[in-house]
Amino acid sequence: MFERRLALESIHTLSRRYFVMQYRCPDIAAAAQPGHFVMISVSDTIDPLLRRPMAIYRIVREAGAAVGFTLLVEQTGRGTTLMARARPGDLADVLGPLGCPFRLPAAQVLDDEEDLLVMGGVGAAPFPLLAETLTNLGARVRSFVGGRSRENLLCLDDFVEMDIPVHTATDDGSAGHHGFVTGALEAHLGLAAGSPRIYSCGPTPMMRAVDEVAARHGCDHQVSLEAPMACGIGVCLSCVVPVERGDARVYERICREGPVFDAATLGWR
Amino acid sequence: MSDSNGSVDLAVTVGDIELSNPILLASGTVGYGEELGELIDLSRLGGIVVKGLSLEPERGNVPQRIAEVPGGMLNSIGLQNVGADAFVRRKLPFLRQLDLKVIANIWGRTVEEYVGVATRLDAADGVDALELNVSCPNIKEGGISFGTDPVQIHAVTAAVRAATDKPLWVKLAPGVTDIGVMALAAEEAGADALSVANTIRGMAVHVGHRRPLLATIYGGLSGPSLFPIVLYLLYEVSLVSSLPLIGIGGVSELDHVLQYLITGATAVQIGTANFYDPMASQRLVDELARWCCDEEIPTVREVIGSLQVGEP
């Protein structure tokens, strides 16, 4: 965990709603694992007051060394609107990497199953790094990218670049499967043998629907959650989620014990 | 008393406790210190006030627990904590290795529960003082219902006073008609210091959903927007009470620290700033030392209560 004041290196607009910010920071970049996030300030004033949690999207490498990271941001409110207006050279306070990352499959079980990444909208942000890491381990990775419409399908180029098969789904049928991303997931699971490992991130109803499918097929399922949070390091106790531990149901912190949880512990099933 | 602050003397005394400097971490904003300790050197601070402890572990309120508002935030955590026994067993050993004062914030739903927590902590080595929370806005049965009634403040303070020899600070509620009355009730019942103040009740509504942003409808307002309100409350308390005062509310920069000290606070607690600026407390210690040095003030104690009113 590093606290750094960083100058924005570049900002790249993907579409009306989405943009990518790049920061140079070898400390954070070298320590970052798939599923980690940072807390980033959006203003030098006290309004808005709080930093925003953002998943680490890609690691920037030079000559093999991790030197920076990027954030994939959706402009949804005041904080992200200020972020969208940032220009190269603008300073931000960044704390990271934070949280517990995705659990990676052990080498001896890697070949047994596929690894399926299921995402909705800007929930796609942590998956290119996960895909890259899994691919480097030798995993067979497949992505399922959902969104309301074609413009909400993110990271398609990232997956194509890594030769990862992409299944798309849109609510309005403007691209891929017409319907929820779980439709595309089920279609694949119907053909595939075994119980692939599933990783999901997106709107809660989407992740719950993915978990229903995962439970039915006996799949290990990790989800990355988000919630309003003030600190990102586990001291404010804002971002809690009820988790089943043994016979007890306890509140755990999304920023500290998460953001990645085993879906089976969330009481959805 | 100089540690890394050169020749400037930052030490202050709250009752019988000497603090290496007047910068403390506020209850409910740093847990039990472990997480922030990964970022800053806690031993550079005067002290830490740990998350409010109850007799049994407390689960806390249903989320959503926070909402951002202009210049501040609302919270409704519901005093989620590990309980007094687990604190002593699992959390205190970490704090005891450090060189700062440990103040245990305590609360209960009844006077008996307050006394129970105080009794357990009275036996704990490494707890330097107790801070009585009679002012949490998010616990209906205890907390603020004690803190808005001078008779109840007196009763709970006196009962805890009888149960412990440790220094006893009472953390007052800001949302009262006359905070001086509350301060005097605590003082008469045996408090050694007064912490001014807890969060003040606030609310925010999601316009699109026509629903409160917080699951509990209202919560406690904290952050910079609280600063002038609490500074005035501390001034009011200073007019009636001779006890050492601790300023808590909206401190994020040196100017706030100095305003509290000048108005009569012996120490200040850093709260919400720990969330959005985790280095704030450590930086404020350095900035306070530098300011004293620049102003050629040999001891920060000269600043405390130096407020001039009336004709200049």
Notes on the structure:
The complex is a heterodimer of chains A (269) and B (312). Chain A is of the alpha/beta class and 269 residues long. Chain A has 2 domains: 2-98, Translation factors (Elongation Factor Tu (Ef-tu), domain 3); 107-265, 3-Layer(aba) Sandwich (Rossmann fold), CATH 3.40.50.80. In chain A, 20% of the residues lie in helices and 36% in strands. Chain A has 6 helices and 15 strands. In chain A, helix 5 (181-191) runs parallel beside helix 6. Chain A is globular, with a radius of gyration of 18 Å. The model of chain A has no long low-confidence stretch (mean pLDDT 96). Chain B has one domain (12-61, 77-199, 223-302): TIM Barrel, CATH 3.20.20. Chain B is built from 9 helices and 16 strands. Chain B has 312 residues and is an alpha/beta fold. Chain B is globular. The two termini of chain B are 34 Å apart. In chain B, strand 15 (245-248), helix 7 and strand 16 (265-270) form a beta-alpha-beta unit. Chain B has helices spanning 84-96, 111-122, 144-147, 150-163, 179-188, 227-240, 254-263, 273-276, 280-294; strands at 12-14, 17-19, 23-25, 47-53, 66-69, 72-75, 101-106, 129-133, 168-172, 193-196, 200-203, 205-206, 211-212, 218-222, 245-248, 265-270. Chain B has an 8-stranded parallel barrel, surrounded by 7 helices. Helix content of chain B is 31%, strand content 21%. In chain B, 62% of the residues are buried. The interface between A and B is medium-sized, with 28 and 33 residues.
